[in-house]
Amino acid sequence: MAHTLPPLPYEKDALAPHLSAETFEYHYGKHHQAYVTNLNNLIPGTEFETAALEDIVKKASGGIYNNAAQIWNHTFFWSCMKPNGGGAPTGALADAINAKWGSFDAFKEAFTKSAVGNFGSGWTWLVKKADGSVDIVNTGPAGTPLTTADKALLTIDVWEHAYYIDYRNARPKFVEVFLTSLANWDFAAENFA
């Protein structure tokens, strides 16, 4: 089964001025597409030839895993942002965040510290643990909660290609803008439920 590049949940210019259409042309149109193309070239003749993407991520290793996980991570990441995003979560997710960190501001500080300190290329995730609590987890280049007992709620891509066009090497500024102006807390709350 051939995998395809999933459509974005908004137009390429919908997150401007925080993320430019040019960023999406490269990050979505070239990087994300390359993972799809690579996976489709790697799976013929393997046990993953007809497997669903999530099954590949959970069972594969090496290049097949790396490309499949990056497809899943990026597709998830696009939904973690929305036009006029940011603000703060409400309801059960807000309660879980407050229970873990004491306040949303303390969560933002912990998330920012984790994302800025995630060495090299990778992802910083807000996850739901098996016991229903929440936590912040850093993963490396193709790491994903799909391979753990954690459930992904929200993520930020901290590979430089995610922000370099708009923010150059200012990862802290990108993380700040993600939390204040882009984060899709409705999506995170749906995942939490």
Describe the structure.
The chain is globular. It has a 3-stranded antiparallel sheet with strand order 2-1-3. The protein is built from 8 helices and 3 strands; from the N terminus they run H-H-H-H-H-E-E-E-H-H-H. The mean pLDDT is 97. Helix content is 50%, strand content 10%. The protein is mainly alpha-helical.
Summarize the structure.
Helices cover 50% and strands 10% of the residues. With 193 residues, it is mainly alpha-helical. The longest helix is centred in the N-terminal third of the chain and has 22 residues, at 21-42.
List the helices and strands and how they pair.
Layout: H1 21-42, H2 53-59, H3 62-79, H4 91-101, H5 104-117, E1 123-128, E2 134-139, E3 151-157, H6 164-167, H7 171-182, H8 185-192
Antiparallel strand pairs: 1-2, 1-3
Helix pairs in contact: 1-3, 2-3, 4-5, 5-7
Please state the average pLDDT score. 97
Give the helix level as a range of percent. Answer: 40-55%
Largest sheet: 3 strands, antiparallel
Rg is: 16 Å
Order of helices and strands: HHHHHEEEHHH
Poorly predicted regions:
none
Number of strands: 3
The rounded distance between the terminal residues' Cα atoms is 31 Å
Which quaternary structure do these chains form?
A: single chain
Which class best fits the helix and strand makeup? mainly alpha
Widest beta sheet: strand line-up? 2-1-3
Q: Judging from the principal axes of the Cα atoms, what is the shape?
A: globular
Number of helices: 8
- Classify the beta-strand content into a percent band: 5-15%
Pfam family, one: Sod_Fe_N
EC number: 1.15.1.1
Keywords: Metal-binding, Oxidoreductase
Catalytic activity: 2 superoxide + 2 H(+) = H2O2 + O2
